[in-house]
Amino acid sequence: MNRFEKLDKWLRTSEWNGILVTKPENIGYLTGFWGSFGMYLQTKSGGRYLLTDGRYEVLASDLATQNNFTFIRFKSEAPKDFIKTVTGTLCVESSLTLSELSRLKKWFKGVEMKVQSGVIEKFRKVKSQSELDIMRAAQAHVDEILLPFLKANLKRGVSESQLKFKLDQTLRGEGRFGLSFESIVGFGTGSALPHYESGDRKLKQGDNILIDCGVIDRRYCSDMTRNFCYGSPSEGYLRDYALLLQAQKNTLNQVKSGVKVKFLDSFCREKMGKESELFVHSLGHGVGLEIHEAPTLSAKSKDVLQGHEVVTVEPGIYRPNQHGIRIEDTMIVLENGCEILTKTTKELLSFDEEGRVQVLLG
Ligand SMILES: [Mn+2]
Predict the structure, then answer these.
(1) How remote is the CA of residue 292 from the centroid of ligand 1, in Å?
(2) Which candidate, 249, 255, 143, 158, places its Cα nearest to that of 204?
(3) In whole angstroms, what is the distance from residue 331 CA to residue 249 CA?
(4) pLDDT for 331
(5) How far apart are alpha carbons 203 and 221 in whole angstroms?
(6) Which of 50, 140, 179, 277 has the highest local Cβ count within 10 Å?
(7) Per-residue pLDDT tens for 10-38?
(8) Does residue 192 contact residue 170 with C-beta atoms inside 8 Å?
(9) What is the pTM of this model?
(10) For residue 122, pLDDT beyond 90
(11) Whether pLDDT at 195 is above 80
(12) How many CB atoms within 10 Å of residue 133?
């Protein structure tokens, strides 16, 4: 079953006469169209329509032929040939802004529109072999460059933002990759803020370093967080790292198809003991066309892992004004375990001025 057929099947058993897809990642996922303006409408009676403007006429017509849907050119406000394709009830996505929704209400007069969130996102959770291959390749690029990059660039006095800038540049691989997000580079106390923005802080002996980064390869994101030291870190840092690494590894051993995500979240916190008070975010998230997508691995989620979902497990310990540690792997969920995509070592490595590396903790 292709993606359109899956949506057909969903529509047939739903209360809706059609679904209007407006979130760019969802339009892209279904149709292959990634332009800056477009809407995709699929109806219970089997109609499939992509609305976009003249700038994309050639591209959209080609995609329509390849994928067996109808391209409708947006010429004027309230495009009649698009609007008339659905009557009755129409499902719209929760990502719509209020102004977009009020525009659609003017278009689809007499159609009952309601929001149902996560319809396409649910399809996107489980990846195909070709999606998985791209995601493996994206992470392989990061694994290939990260340690050599650090050897060459961890120098006393380099600032977080300088290192971040160079890392982003290296990750982009001369244009072959995009960034899943701007890399997070934190030194010492800077790392203690979970979503830190790199600043002017300069690297000094004894600093710990937190790096969270990912690339986009053919529209799919990668995500990994690793921790390093410059010289010798504090005893407290080593203790926290050892504890967190053990808890993270134990949690990875629990990941497989059929496991409740809230179990994983609480399992990890249990393993962390009282340090779990310093673990101030959820355990992880799905990754794919978006860096954060379904499922969310949190205590509140009712999700159950399914085979070929791609998710992160990323517990952290954030000690205010001291240090922060987050160990994040991305993995493919399998029937009896998982395939870890993030292959950069989790041994705690210490770098010196000459780029020599020593293993502090294994
Ligand atoms: Mn993440």
Answers:
(1) 7
(2) 158
(3) 12
(4) 98
(5) 29
(6) 50
(7) 999 999 999 999 999 999 999 999 999 99
(8) no
(9) 0.96
(10) yes
(11) no
(12) 14
